[in-house]
Design a protein that fits this description.
elongated, single chain, mainly alpha
Length: 265
Amino acid sequence: MSTSSDSLQVARKWPDGRPLALPLALIALWALATSRGWVDTKVVVPPAQVLATAWQELFNPTFYQGVALSLWRDLSGFALGSTAGVLLGVLLGVSPLARWMIGPTFHSLRQVSLFAWLPLLAAVAGSGDLSKIVFVAFSAFYPMVLATLEGVQGVSAAHAEVARVYGFSGPQRLFRLILPSAAPQILSGIQLALIYAWLGTIGAEFLLYDFSNGLGQIVIKGRSAFRVDVILFGLFVIGLIGYGFARLTARLERHLLRWRPPALH
């Protein structure tokens, strides 16, 4: 029994490599297919060629300028959209009048595909940074409103009754009851909004092309030159940054909600 326990303790010290099993298997299959000539290497380039392109781009200052510009567009739009989303979500959650006046319009507009707004944004604000940031803000706005609304409406009747008995004022109910109770849903909404904002950033750079820099432009330039290795490198970087955002927000959520009891399984 002790030997089994010691082995388990040693195993826990090593990182779990199971999530890497499928990507490594796919890369091995990719390398095998290109080396054996099973595919057209002009379309499916060898992994070594993608690595060579990545090594070249990592020493190119323009690449880092593109990353910085994409992150600036993403975080600017996310900040605007998520802030507006929390405010509207709280308003819809606490005010029956707001739900009656604003709710139907909001729920109708959110049925419109986000990318359907791009022609209107391009016509009004052009294809520059302003229209891109507004589009990213729209991408973060809708999930943030819905998550906040769900959290506010999920405040238990028992807690609301306690607040009434203690004579909480309006601001006290908001900051001491509603927002703390809705915090888990709001943080989940932030995580989702950040992912949507990143997808919106790349989509805006791809569809609102204005010859400026950005990660989306790497994919466009690779497509224009029929450089599949450049396209794959750009997709890898985009996916890696998106994964980093997801992990960061998940850790932030666990830290801020560490007061909650662990879920039962």
